[in-house]
Amino acid sequence: MNRFVITALVVTLVAFCQQVTAQRSGGGLGKFTKSKRYISVGLTANAINYFGDIVPKNRAGSFDTDFTRPNVGFFVQKRLWPRITIRMGGAWGVLSGEDHTTSDPDDFEHGGAFRYKRNLHFRNRIYDLTTVAVVDIIQNRGLAERRPDSPIPYLLAGVGAFYHNPQALRPEGFEGSEWVDLRPLRTENQERPYSEIEISFPVGLGVRYRLSESWDIAFEISYRFTLTDYLDDVSGDYIDLGEFDSDLARALHDRSAEPVALLSGEVRSPETISYNSAVDGRPYEVVNGYGMPNNRRGAPDNDIFIVTGFQISYIFNKRGFYKFR
């Protein structure tokens, strides 16, 4: 977790605790009444990126813009105190990546050469629900229609849950290159499939600007730190290919010997060797260092995705309702 994320998380939590304490004690919030609380709803248009095992460099924050994908969502939020707003929202997007086009075959320092030869790829549709505390750097004690006209920077932190289902293109020899679900195939020979529903911890920052009495616009970036290493279906080591009962799972476990990088369609020229399985005695064609027991397939670090984009929100002003009473 880098310094930006740690700082945003700590500042958000500290400010939230201070605000709650002040609210309970009445310290400095005498003029902020319940009538100044308001609800707003909004839509988001974002870009989504992924950090995991199929990236240019083996470090958080490394991603290929060619695999940036759209993400859209909605939210409802309530302003509770001068600095604090609680937001609940949902979003949908697609994560994607491919070793052959993402990694540099000459990058031995960061492991790009290894990933280039590995030749894995994936896509993953993400359905994301989050609840976060939004902490304004500049507080607003006024009514909704008297919000500051100047840009308001803010931090956010919270918790979320998401549904995911990684897929890959089926290789030649399996009735065409169609997208297949990887989870039920257990491509790393797991005892049981990993969960389709996982937890995330959103942490981020943004800036919000008032457009009119009832409308706001914002730009925001947030990291989603997840509790899974299988957004890309890659985590552990290669195993003996004879361990698999399914030919399709075996083929998707090791793709180093494939003559084509299917996601990009680029032709490859892998240098293969043959080894005999100690499990079933059959010969298998692999690239040396791949597809055999105890060779490294992925890294056991949880995956991350990041959401960056714009929000527009409409404010339901209580005072406007009173005019009709």
Write the layout of secondary structure elements.
Elements lengths: L2 H23 L12 E14 L17 E11 L4 E15 H4 L9 H7 L2 E16 L15 E12 L2 E4 L9 E3 L15 E14 L4 E12 L20 H7 L6 E2 L4 E2 L4 E5 L6 E5 L16 E13 L1 H5 L3
Antiparallel strand pairs: 1-2, 1-14, 2-3, 3-4, 4-5, 4-6, 5-8, 6-7, 8-9, 9-14, 10-11, 12-13
For this structure, the quaternary state is single chain
Specify the number of helices.
5
Termini separation? 52 Å
Strand order of the largest sheet: 1-2-3-4-5-8-9-14
Average pLDDT value? Answer: 85
The fraction of residues assigned to DSSP E strands is: 35-45%
Helix amount: 10-25%
The ordered string of helix (H) and strand (E) elements is HEEEHHEEEEEEHEEEEEH
Care to count the β-strands? 14
Structural class: mainly beta
The largest sheet, given as strand count, sense and whether it forms a barrel, is: 8 strands, antiparallel, barrel
Low-pLDDT segments, ≥5 res = 1-6, 16-30, 320-325
Shape: elongated
Radius of gyration: 24 Å
